[in-house]
Amino acid sequence: MRNGFFQFAGTVVLALALSATSALAQKKYDTGASDTEIKIGQTLAFSGPASAYATIGKTQAAYMKMINDQGGVNGRKINLIQYDDAYSPPKAVEQIRKLVENDEVLLTFQVLGTPSNAAVQKYLNVKKVPQLYAATGASRFTDPKNFPWTMGFNPNYFVEGRIYGQYILKEHPNAKVGILYQNDDLGKDYLNGIKAGLGDKAASMIVAEASYEVSDPTVDSQILKIKDSGADLFFSATTPKFAAQAIKKNYELGWHPVHILDINSVSVGAVMKPAGSEASKGVISVNYGKDPLDPTWKDDPGMKKYFDFMAKYYPEGD
């Protein structure tokens, strides 16, 4: 009996040991990741006032398909789940919660827009879900102390605004500056940046400031206010729909100030063409990429590779 007990006990210990070894051999991943899949969530403006940006998400989905066709990431296929937030903060909150709590994504990727990202930043950090490459350059998304799970993507809007201010001081030191800006972190960062670049001369050089809401149908009244102030240099801190409206309205009014435009709205296809090619002549801005519609890059190897990708994976893309 005694020998039988020890034999039984030994069997149990062996079974437990084998069970523990088996458990240790199993790989453990965070929610949304496995040996075969990486689940990623994204919201962006497929509709609404910033729907010009929808092509970004469609291109990214096409790119993920290309990566999957090439074998994925270390054998794992990327499952990109996309929802429309219509550039609306309440909608973004609803859709991000769905991605995290229902779809159980590993991370969010390139959620687009300052208002949408601001609305979900705290939630994602509390949940410890990476807010990876948030598609905005607002300063609040470069704050690892308070938001360690957030990583911005775009160059900083405040710094960009400061560059414009320094440019104005150098090239147009006697300018009367009028500023149109979006009434959120995007526009306010640009406003504060250009004032920092102008320094002590900001108060005397800036003769008009006018803000707009993303829900506004037009910015016509703001343009009239800035024009009537006597401004001869116009800084537009806007997103594509309103940038195109401003360019077109200036042209219709016969008002031709020096026109500086922020980086979010430099697209030829989404802004310049809708506003009118003639009306868009002379607009000044910066870019950190190569515009596919700029003939400067027609023989560029990287651009040729890009067009080959688009032809295969997103042929209807603009």
Share of residues in helices: 40-55%
Parts with pLDDT < 50 across at least 5 consecutive residues: 1-24
Q: How many separate domains make up the residues?
A: 2
Overall CATH class of the largest domain: Alpha Beta
Topology pattern, helix = H, strand = E: HEHEHEHEEHEHHEHEHEHHH
Short recap of the structure:
By secondary structure, the chain is of the alpha/beta class. It has twelve helices and nine strands.
Protein architecture, described:
The chain is α/β, with parallel strands linked by helices and 318 residues long. It has 2 domains: 37-152, Response regulator (Rossmann fold), CATH 3.40.50; 157-280, 3-Layer(aba) Sandwich (Rossmann fold), CATH 3.40.50.2300. The protein is 47% helix and 15% strand. It has 12 helices and 9 strands. The chain has helices spanning 2-25, 54-69, 89-102, 114-127, 157-171, 185-198, 202-205, 220-228, 240-253, 268-275, 277-280, 301-313, and strands at 37-44, 77-84, 107-109, 131-134, 150-152, 177-182, 206-212, 233-237, 258-261. It has a 5-stranded parallel sheet with strand order 2-1-3-4-5, sandwiched between helices. α5 (157-171) packs parallel to α6. The radius of gyration is 26 Å and the shape is globular. The termini are far apart. Residues 1-24 have low confidence and may be disordered.
